[in-house]
Structures are given as C-alpha cells and as structure tokens.
C-alpha cells in the first residue's frame, strides 16, 4: 500500500486521539459518547482513504470535522471546557486535513476543471 495523502495518516492519529480522549481527559456523558463515535468515524474514513484513495472520503472527513467543531453547542456540553476544547480543536484539525487533501488531490482538480469547462462561460 502506497500512501497517497499524508493527511489521511494525520486524520487517523486525530481519530485515535478522539477515541481515547474521554478517558485521557476524564470527561463523560454525551460528550464522551459523541466524541468517541465521531472519532471512530474519522478513523474509518482515514483508513478508507489509505486503502481506497478518493476525494469523496475527504469530503466525508470534512463533514465530520465540521460536526466536531459544532458538537459542544449541538449536544449541550459547551459548558464542559475540556471536552469542548478537545472537540473544537480536533474538529478543526480534521477539517484542515480534509480541505488540504482536497486541494492537493489531482483527481478532484481534474473533475473541477472539467466541470468549469462545461458549466462556466469562457
């Protein structure tokens, strides 16, 4: 297996951290459950990106990253500082890696150029 995007490895590391962080940082309840569930999603998309590289998994990772950023306010644990900070920072990292991967992906760039040629006036 040849790694095409280093961002997948970085996202995998963030996903593993998200899985371990409720116990490492000592938070519980909905914050712990949602952090672990979304961490598992990041891990799955990162592994999928390593095995079957595609810009589609980067879109999914970006969506999970955005949800992680908004999670403290969506699920009501914004008052738990450590859990909130963890979710927002990890979400920003996942989102950054996903966008970076999409910008670097030649498949997505070629599809974007083809779409622009056929849909935008010259």
Beta-strand share of residues: under 5%
Radius of gyration computed on alpha carbons? 16 Å
Helix content: over 70%
Number of domains: 1
Protein name: SPW repeat-containing protein
Keywords: Membrane, Transmembrane, Transmembrane helix
Pfam families: SPW
Transmembrane segments: 55-74, 86-103
What does this structure look like?
By secondary structure, this protein is mainly α. It has five helices and no strands. It has one domain (6-119). The chain has helices at 6-25, 30-51, 55-75, 81-104, 106-119. Helix 2 (30-51) packs antiparallel against helix 3, helix 2 (30-51) runs parallel beside helix 4 and helix 3 (55-75) packs antiparallel against helix 4 (81-104). The longest helix has 24 residues, at 81-104. The chain is elongated. The mean pLDDT is 90. Residues 6-99 form the SPW repeat-containing integral membrane domain. Keywords: Membrane, Transmembrane, Transmembrane helix. It comes from Chitinimonas taiwanensis DSM 18899. InterPro entries: SPW.
What are the main properties of this structure?
122 residues, mainly alpha, 5 helices, 83% helix
SSE map:
Elements (H helix, E strand, L loop, with lengths): L5 H20 L4 H22 L3 H21 L5 H24 L1 H14 L3
What's a concise summary of this model?
This protein has 122 residues and is mostly helical. It has five helices and no strands.
């Amino acid at each position: 297996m040849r790694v095409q995007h280093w961002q997948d490895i970085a996202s995998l590391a963030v996903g593993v951290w998200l899985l371990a962080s409720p116990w490492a940082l000592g938070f519980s309840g909905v914050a712990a459950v949602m952090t672990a569930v979304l961490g598992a999603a990041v891990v799955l998309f990162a592994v999928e990106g390593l095995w079957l590289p595609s810009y589609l998994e980067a879109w999914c990772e970006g969506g999970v990253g955005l949800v992680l950023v908004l999670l403290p306010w969506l699920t009501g644990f914004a008052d738990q500082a450590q859990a909130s900070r963890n979710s927002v920072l990890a979400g920003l990292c996942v989102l950054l890696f996903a966008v970076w991967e999409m910008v670097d992906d030649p498949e997505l760039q070629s599809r974007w150029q083809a779409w622009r040629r056929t849909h935008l006036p010259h």
